[in-house]
Each structure stands twice: as C-alpha cells, then as structure tokens.
Amino acid sequence: MNKIIIVDTMVWTFLYDKNRYFDDAEEVVVKFLNQGFKLAINSVIEHEFLRGRIERYKNYFKQVANLVNKIEVNNNTFMEAVDIFRVQQMMYDKFEKNPGKHLGDILIAATAFLERCYILTANLKDFSTPLFIIRSSEVLMKKGKGEFKNSLSKIETIYLLEPNYEFVERVLPRLTKTSGD
C-alpha cells in the first residue's frame, strides 16, 4: 500500500468549518501526516466539494487542492469502477438497496484500488465492507456552547479504509463467468 490517503469530501468539510463541526478533525489529519502519509484528492472529490457550495468553500478548496496530491480520474478508473459496481450488485440484490453507492463514491473507491491508497471518510456506508477494511477510526466530538459547554452537541467517526484486494480478486473471476447470464 502507498502511504497516500484520499480524503473524502465530508472530512474536508469538517476541516474547513471547525466552528460548525469538529475542532479535533485537524488533529486527526495531522496524526496521519506525522505517520508519513500524504493527502490526496481526485477530481470527483473536487467536484463534490465545489458543486453548489458557497464562495468561501470554493476558495478554501482551491487552496487545499494546491497543497495535496491530485489523482486524475481516467479511463482505467472507470473500468475499475465498473468492476466495483458489479461486485456491489452481487453483494446487494439490487443496487438501489444500498443508496449510499453513487457514481462519485464508486469512482473514489476505484481510485483507491488503482492507486493502492487509503480513504479517509466519515461516510462508511459509501465504502462498505467487504470491499474495504477499516484500518483505524477516530471519534470526533464537538462540545456545546454557553451553558451547554460541558456537554457534547455532535459526535462523528471518521475511518481510515484500505481496499480489500483479496476479497475483490476472489470475487471478480466469478463475475466474468456469470456476466453472460
């Protein structure tokens, strides 16, 4: 595995809007940087973050995009995404039964598989097991304000996920045998 982490859109949102979300999100990312990881985005994450966002988000993300590795989505990514989609169809009777799986998430997953890198996400449903293995998780907490400062107002978990190559390699040969059915 490469020591590269694709940081999903929601985690970037946590980092940007600390007052609204979690003060400790930055600490988690710094922890991974201190372990020698590099941060990355792909063009899907860039699009997700910029789509429909207010101008201050756009400016922030343009600055971020200049500081991290950018992995382009290309034809190989789409081909890998097709395989991931097919595996998901086997895991769920119909794709619609797992609404967290959208084209953008499948392309992010495909990027992780192709580039042999991790994903840091708050949306575990978007990158489900057994396609991904949870390597670590961190709980983010936001304390209340004013008279509620000693209580928690939000709790969220972010996950470091690794592609499960062993599972996919076992499943894909069966897919090619059944694709003509």
Care to give the gist of this entry?
The chain has about 180 residues and is α/β, with parallel strands linked by helices. It contains seven helices and six strands.
Q: Which helices and strands appear, and what pairs or packs with what?
A:
Layout: E1 4-7, H1 9-16, H2 25-34, E2 38-42, H3 43-50, H4 55-67, E3 69-71, H5 75-91, H6 103-115, E4 118-121, E5 132-143, E6 152-163, H7 165-178
Parallel strand pairs: 1-2, 1-4, 2-3
Antiparallel strand pairs: 4-6, 5-6
Any overview of this molecule?
With 181 residues, the chain is an alpha/beta fold. The chain has helices spanning 9-16, 25-34, 43-50, 55-67, 75-91, 103-115, 165-178; strands at residues 4-7, 38-42, 69-71, 118-121, 132-143, 152-163. A hairpin with an 8-residue loop joins strand 5 and strand 6 (152-163). Helix 1 crosses helix 3 and helix 5 crosses helix 6.
| Structural class estimated from helices and strands | alpha/beta
Main beta-sheet strand count, sense and barrel state: 6 strands, mixed
Order of helices and strands: EHHEHHEHHEEEH
What oligomeric state is this?
single chain
- Structural shape: globular
Helical residues, percent: 40-55%
Work out the radius of gyration: 17 Å
Q: How many beta-strand runs?
A: 6
What is the terminal separation in angstroms? 35 Å
Residue stretches low in confidence (pLDDT < 50, at least 5 long) are 175-181
Classify the beta-strand content into a percent band.
15-25%
> Count of helical segments?
7
